[in-house]
Structures are given as C-alpha cells and as structure tokens.
Amino acid sequence: MTTLYARELEIAQLAVQRAAILTKRVFLEKAKGTVSKDDASPVTIGDFGAQALIIAALRAHFPHDAIVAEEEAAQLRADAGLRDLIWGLVRETKLEDVAAEGLLGGGVRDVEDLMEVLDRGRSEGGRIGRVWTIDPIDGTKGFLRGGQYAIALALLEDGDVKVGVLGCPNLPVDDAAPLAAEVGAEGEDGMGVVFSAVVGQGATSRPLGAGGLAEGKRIQMREVKEMAGASFCESVESGHSNQSEAAQIAQKLGITKPSVRMDSQAKYGSIARGAGDIYLRLPTSKTYQEKIWDHAAGDLIVREAGGQVTDTKGQRLDFGVGRTLASNSGVIAAPAAVHGRVLEVVQEVLGLN
Ligand SMILES: Nc1ncnc2c1ncn2[C@@H]1O[C@H](COP(=O)(O)O)[C@@H](OP(=O)(O)O)[C@H]1O
Ligand SMILES: [Mg+2]
Ligand SMILES: [Mg+2]
Ligand SMILES: [Mg+2]
C-alpha cells in the first residue's frame, strides 16, 4: 500500500536534513571566522546554500512543481566571489547516510546551474496546482545569535498545505524537554529535530542528525487543563509581534508564566509536541504581510498535532493568495479545545470585537 504523499514527505525530510548540514557548517565556520575572506554575512551564505540544495532535490524528483522560495539570486549575479563560495559549499554537502544521499540525489552541476536552481524559486504561488514553499533559514536573527532557527519546506496543493517539514538544528531531540529560550551548544548530543506532517496523517518528530530514513515518533499538543499552567511563546523580535499586547492577553487568560521568546517556526514545532501550548503573533503594523514560507509548514504541523491555527480575525491562514498571506493578519495557534477562548481574548485586547 502506498500512503498519500509518502514520496513527497521522504524527499522533503531528506532535503531539509541535508540543508541543515550546510547551515550548521556555515554557523560553526563563521563562529571560528574562517568562512569567508570577504564580508558576506554568514546568513546570506547559509540562505542561498540551503535554498539551492533544497530546490535541486525538488527539481530532481518533482520537476513540474512550482516553487516559492524566500531568497532571490539577483544579489549573487553581481558577486562572483560570493557565488563561488556558495557553490563550493553546496557541492560538498551530502547526507552522511549514503543510502539516503543516493535516494535524495539532486545535485547542482556548476555555478551557472546554481543560479538556475535558485531562480526556480520565483513562482508567484497561488491557488492552483502544486507549489512548494521554502524558507532556507527561518529566524535569521536567531541563526546569527546561535539561537533557534528552522529550515522550512511545505507542499501546497490548490492553496492547501499537504506536507510540512521543519528542521530545527537547535531544539532538543527530546519531545518532552520543556520549552526554553536558551539553546544547547552547537553539535551537542541530543540537539536537532525534524518535525513533519502530512495532511490527515498526523505529525511526527525525528532526530535531525541521525539522518537517514529513521521512523518518526508521533507528536501531539498538550491538553490544557487550566490556563494558569499554560505556557505561550512569541517572537524574540518586538518588531515582528506585539509583545505588550501579548502580555495583556496572557494576563487576561490567566496565564501566569512569562512568555518564552523564540525565533523562527521552532515555535510551531515546540507547541505541536506539547513543549509549550500557545503561539501568539500579533501584527505590529497594518501594512506588513506575513510570508507563506514563514508559516506553511508550521501551520500543518500544529493542526495535525491537534491544534488550531487562525489569524487574529479567526480565519484560517490562506496560502493560496500568492507569496504572502495577504488576506490574514497575525497568527493564533493553540490546542483546538482552547483556541476559541484564546481568540476571544485576543480580539478583546486588540479591540476587534
Ligand atoms: N514586521 C514584521 N512582522 C512580522 N514578521 C516579520 C516582519 N519582518 C520580518 N518578519 C518575518 O519574521 C520571520 C522570523 O519569524 P520570528 O519573528 O517568529 O522569528 C522572518 O523570517 P526570516 O528570518 O526567514 O527572514 C521574516 O520573514
Ligand atoms: Mg522566515
Ligand atoms: Mg529566511
Ligand atoms: Mg528573511
């Protein structure tokens, strides 16, 4: 029996795992100051490198699918040094598990091909057909400070998320580890996890490092028996989410613990496995439109783990509008049983009802 989206899931997981090898290396070498003689930001190198590796895998396996990726190659065209540096990293990055690398395949031939691969990510998205969306490094600020970041990949079909994969190199493998802002040292044992979900099939986690083709373990959101014991997370960046409104909402809900501030979609993965309960992302401006690659994988992983994800208006995130979530405003993610209550208080505090 073949399960729906089994191949998409396997390729997406391996592609994310391989991309994480590159981002971890870039982080470590940057920390030692040896990545580059020029002053290209390590996040730039990591972004382009990871995106190229993922697109190359998608090109090999699903050549007809559209791709909406965060980064654009234009900057690279004008910078041969940076291009060569990234190409060198991409060429050398392979999964440790030889069988897994063989299965994933999808190489980049040369520097020209690198540009071609990156350009494949320029689709406008939309409501028709198969569209992959990629955030090669989500939480660039977290990546730079050695905090949380994620490699995010999702498949949309006719605007709905069907497969979501999040690689989180700096989260503990242990699903029972409590939600914490601080990170274990890079390379430390027990760090690095991949969250995955397929629509209708639940959500799982598996170690990022051990790589290969390991079975995932089923994850579930935690049951919130009383709000006093609940924990909520939000962005580290006060410019990305209104933290003072979030504090008022938490207080009104009766949440007693301070928020856990964490970069990237690691927040979605963390609440999906019950390490935390609620994720609030409250708009800081009327004009900013959330990007689909910042939410698609996380949205499905939380919903498949028993959660509900809406915007502050109570509407589901609509990934079929284009490259952004133009019709949504903010994000409220919580266990399905308490989402309604959380939304009510959000709307009260934001003056939306
Ligand atoms: N004004 C803003 N409001 C909300 N999100 C923003 C924003 N400016 C940038 N972002 C997005 O916030 C993402 C990080 O999420 P978080 O704040 O949860 O860590 C960034 O992803 P990248 O780091 O991939 O660029 C970026 O796309
Ligand atoms: Mg992002
Ligand atoms: Mg990014
Ligand atoms: Mg960005």
TrEMBL record:
Q: Which domain of life is it from?
A: Eukaryota
Q: Provide the catalytic activity annotation.
A: adenosine 3',5'-bisphosphate + H2O = AMP + phosphate; 3'-phosphoadenylyl sulfate + H2O = adenosine 5'-phosphosulfate + phosphate; adenosine 2',5'-bisphosphate + H2O = AMP + phosphate
Source organism per UniProt: Parachaetomium inaequale
Which cofactors does this protein require?
A: Mg(2+)
What does the similarity note say? Belongs to the inositol monophosphatase superfamily.
Enzyme Commission number(s): 3.1.3.7
UniProt keywords (A-Z) are:
Hydrolase, Magnesium, Metal-binding
According to its UniProt entry, one GO biological process term is: sulfate assimilation
A single MF term (Gene Ontology): 3'(2'),5'-bisphosphate nucleotidase activity
The record's annotation in InterPro entries points to: DPNP, Inositol_monoP_metal-BS, Inositol_monoP_superfamily, Inositol_monophosphatase-like, Inositol_monophosphatase_CS
Q: What is its biological role?
A: Converts adenosine 3'-phosphate 5'-phosphosulfate (PAPS) to adenosine 5'-phosphosulfate (APS) and 3'(2')-phosphoadenosine 5'-phosphate (PAP) to AMP.
Protein name, please? 3'(2'),5'-bisphosphate nucleotidase
Annotated residues for binding of Mg(2+)? E70, D135, I137, D138, D294
